[in-house]
Amino acid sequence: MYLEERIEQVEKQNETTARAVAELTIDVRAIRRDQNEGFKQVNARLDRLETDVSGLKQDVSDLKQDVSTLKQDVSDLKQDMSTLKQDVSDLKQDMSTIKQTLQFVLAYLQEKLP
After folding, report:
1. What's residue 84's pLDDT?
2. Where along the sequence do coiled-coil regions lie (predicted)?
């Protein structure tokens, strides 16, 4: 009788162990499936981020080119302003010379005309 009870206990333990192993196998498969899905999601996000970074690098490159062009434009404008200032200075000098000449002509005409 003891052996029969013991055999029955062992069979129940075997059944319980078999169910636990089956559940564990299912849990491990679920964990692997979830891990694979998680890895796929992470890889997809990394791919999107790499694309975004590549786009940002291109934007930075374009902006650097724009800044370089703007710096050149500012330099050109400064040169143009310098030239314009010199031209204005020359015009002022010319106007002064013309004014002096007109004063001499006027003085001469006043002297010669009664």
Report:
1. 97
2. 7-101
| Distance separating alpha carbons of residues 1 and 64, to the nearest angstrom | 92
User: What is the rounded CA–CA span in Å between residue 41 and residue 14?
Assistant: 40
Please state the three-class secondary structure of the chain as a single string: CHHHHHHHHHHHHHHHHHHHHHHHHHHHHHHHHHHHHHHHHHHHHHHHHHHHHHHHHHHHHHHHHHHHHHHHHHHHHHHHHHHHHHHHHHHHHHHHHHHHHHHHHHHHHHHHCC
Among 61, 60, 80, 83, which residue's Cα sits nearest to residue 72? 80
Query: What does the chain come to in residues?
Result: 114
pLDDT in tens, 45-82: 999 999 999 999 999 999 999 999 999 999 999 999 99
Tokens at 70, concatenated: 């703007």
What six digits make up the tokens of 58?
Answer: 């291109």
User: Where residue 23 falls among pLDDT bands split at 50, 70, 90?
Assistant: confident
Owner of token pair 């370089």? 68
